[in-house]
TrEMBL record:
InterPro entries: AB_hydrolase_fold, LYPA1-2/EST-like, PLipase/COase/thioEstase. The lineage of its organism: Bacteria, Bacillati, Bacillota, Bacilli, Bacillales. This is Dienelactone hydrolase family protein. Belongs to the AB hydrolase superfamily. AB hydrolase 2 family. Gene3D superfamilies: alpha/beta hydrolase (3.40.50.1820). Coiled coil: none annotated. It comes from Paenibacillus artemisiicola. Pfam families: Abhydrolase_2. One of its GO terms (molecular function) is hydrolase activity. Residues 25-203 form the Phospholipase/carboxylesterase/thioesterase domain. Keywords: Hydrolase.
């Protein structure tokens, strides 16, 4: 199957034949590429498949998933296309690699965070969880997209307290919105601009590992 995206895949080095693994799909920010976020999740590659997805629209020397009419105002047709193509890619990768479909995570920064949160709202419990770093949810996603329940979706949302691109108030709006939809929300702010601090990276990495392990434990429990 031909995919809409160029991507970078890392499989756990000690993987066992026939075993399926949790996966982290990473979505980069504007002007970057599929390798940009790998350093943030590299400590998890012993236990997770990591798939970096490159935006398929050129932007300078990098890439993006969609363009903007203005800051915070995506070109709707491009955004809709990106959402459809990313949903199809996640399903394709699940069939192609030894992915546990019950432990699929999407991690995004900036434009990638916007898409990660939007994918959670449209895919629902097809995703196990998301990590959204310094993004927002477009208004038209909330009001015009067909949304699914995220009650069983885990969400780690963080924001820089001094973010000069998306003010921290937007991060708090994200937390209020998702907090009304799922009890599985972790929201944190960090003393940073539009970026990811080492503390932020450690926090979401520990959160991802614990959430994936909790899923395995719960599924293995005797619930009769």
């Amino acid at each position: 199957m031909k995919t809409a995206f160029h991507y970078d895949v890392h499989l756990p080095p000690g993987r066992l034949e026939g075993q399926r693994y949790p996966v982290i799909f990473t979505l980069h920010g504007k002007g970057s590429n599929e390798r940009n976020l790998f350093g943030l999740v590299e400590p998890l590659t012993d236990a997770f498949i990591v798939i970096g997805i490159r935006g398929n629209r050129l932007l300078g020397n990098g890439f993006q998933y969609y363009d903007l009419k203005s800051l915070g105002n995506p070109i709707r047709e491009q955004f809709d296309q990106a959402m459809a193509e990313l949903t199809a890619f996640i399903r394709y990768a699940t069939e192609t690699y030894p992915v546990d479909p019950k432990r699929r995570y999407v991690l995004g920064f900036s434009q990638g965070a916007i898409l990660a949160m939007s994918l959670a709202l449209t895919m629902g419990d097809e995703l196990k969880g998301i990590v959204a770093l310094n993004g927002y949810v477009p208004g038209f996603v909330k009001t015009e997209y067909p949304l699914r329940s995220v009650a069983n979706v885990s969400a780690f949302i963080s924001h820089g307290e001094f973010d000069g691109v998306f003010p921290v108030a937007i991060g708090r709006e994200n937390a209020d919105y998702f907090g009304g939809l799922t009890e599985r929300l972790t929201f944190k702010t960090y003393p940073a601009d539009h970026g990811v601090t080492p503390e932020n990276q450690r926090d979401f990495a520990a959160w991802l590992r614990a959430d994936a392990e909790r899923t395995t434990t719960t599924e293995g429990a005797d619930v009769r």
